[in-house]
Write a structure and sequence with these properties.
399 residues, alpha+beta, Transposase Inhibitor Protein From Tn5, Chain A, domain 1, 15 helices
């Protein structure tokens, strides 16, 4: 069952047949963790031939209504608005939706990156969400390799209006090292932390000559924060700040080179804290691939590919919210692996926990008759089974 705000948005733009098809597809994604059309067609619950089920899905995935701006942006706007106006929500809603915001010095943190999926160069704009990230906007690029400045501006222009009333910070790795992108963000009142390449030239206010980062002689364990610098010989772009940090080696292992982070944040501590959040988008890519929906296994054209990413974004957010609620209610021990020691990192993310919970509920419903027969053979375990049914009832409630 979709949350109420999902139902309202989707029913506004889809007819009843399209809405039910979308709901079934999201349930199939949660249960089988596959976006391959052949797999989805084989498990699609329609009493028609396999080829007919596959053609039905192919026609659905090219609908013009499956648009990021039409279906996905309204959901994001709702979340953002509800997180900012938390006092008007009940306790459960505040606990769920507050997790959306990675609160590092009061910013909504946007991470940008490109990834290769079966020969497709996909540009992804994501919202950092705890230790993971939520897809916000994406596109398949025509060229291979790094994106250009115009492409970066185009995709960010579509996303930034969603946060026009709030403080926003953009993170980017060495692909997005252009000081011109930093200048463009600063002109729009957006904070940024963009990792630079080692051949970046910069000039300090009190010096006349430009310096090159790789020639400054940094070693593991060193850090430095330059304020009021300008970048690019001849352009004089700035003034910005530059954070340099090289993690100390441990047992002869460590980073091969330092972080060079161009930013308009005021301190080294802030720059490093927010840049560490960039790892969330790498976790997102992993969840879309081998650890989640196996997006690389699909073989479709670009139109259907973008529609499948939209379905993944919806399913991903639902699974994560469901996992968060299960963990907060203490239901995670019924659906997934728990930590053996409190001082270790979580063995499962909220997203993974949500998927496990969905599959457990699906199995309990599908094999209900056999489950009841098995329970009848173990009367001495009835108290434990009763607790499990109570947990199942809580997990089935809309969140």
């Amino acid at each position: 069952m979709f949350p109420t705000f999902y139902q309202t948005t989707l029913r506004t733009h889809l007819n009843e047949s399209q809405y039910l098809t979308l709901q079934l597809l999201l349930l199939l994604l949660q249960t089988h963790r596959q976006v391959s059309l052949s797999v989805l067609a084989s498990v699609s619950p329609q009493p028609i031939q396999y080829q007919s089920r596959k053609r039905n899905l192919q026609r659905f995935l090219v609908l013009p209504q499956l648009s990021v701006k039409l279906l996905w942006f309204p959901l994001l706007k709702y979340w953002i608005r509800q997180v900012q106006t938390g006092p008007h929500l009940n306790r459960n809603q505040r606990r769920q939706l507050k997790q959306l915001k990675q609160d590092k010095y009061g910013y909504w943190i946007i991470a940008i990156d490109c990834t290769q999926w079966k020969g497709r160069n996909v540009f992804m704009v994501s919202l950092v969400w705890g230790t993971h990230a939520l897809p916000v906007y994406w596109d398949v690029l025509d060229q291979v390799g790094n994106s250009d400045l115009n492409t970066q501006k185009r995709l960010l222009k579509a996303v930034l209006p969603l946060f026009k009333s709030y403080r926003v910070l953009v993170l980017g790795d060495r692909e997005f090292h252009s000081p011109k992108l930093a200048q463009w963000l600063a002109q729009r009142g957006v904070s940024f932390a963009l990792r630079q390449q080692k051949d970046c030239h910069f000039q300090q206010a009190a010096q006349e000559d430009y310096q090159v980062l790789k020639e400054l002689g940094f070693k593991p364990g060193m850090s430095q924060f330059y304020q009021g610098i300008v970048c690019n010989k001849g352009d004089g772009i700035g003034p910005f700040n530059l954070a340099v940090y090289w993690k100390r080696k441990y047992r002869s292992a460590g980073a091969k080179e330092p972080w060079y982070i161009l930013t308009n944040l005021p301190t080294l501590k802030q720059a490093l804290a927010v840049y560490r959040c960039r790892w969330g988008i790498e976790q997102l890519f992993k969840d879309c691939k081998t650890a989640g929906y196996h997006l690389e296994d699909t073989k479709v054209n670009d139109t259907r590919f973008l529609a499948l990413v939209l379905l993944i974004a919806m399913a991903y957010s639902l699974a994560t919210l469901h996992g968060q609620e299960m963990r907060k209610l203490g239901l995670d021990i019924y659906a997934g692996r728990i930590n053996e020691h409190r001082d270790k990192p979580l063995r499962q993310s909220d997203f993974s926990l949500g998927l496990y919970g969905q599959r457990w509920m699906y199995g309990m419903e599908l094999w209900n008759d056999w489950v009841l027969r098995l329970i009848a053979l173990k009367p001495h375990k009835w108290l434990y089974f009763q607790r499990g049914f109570q947990v199942l009832s809580l997990m089935q409630q809309p969140f």
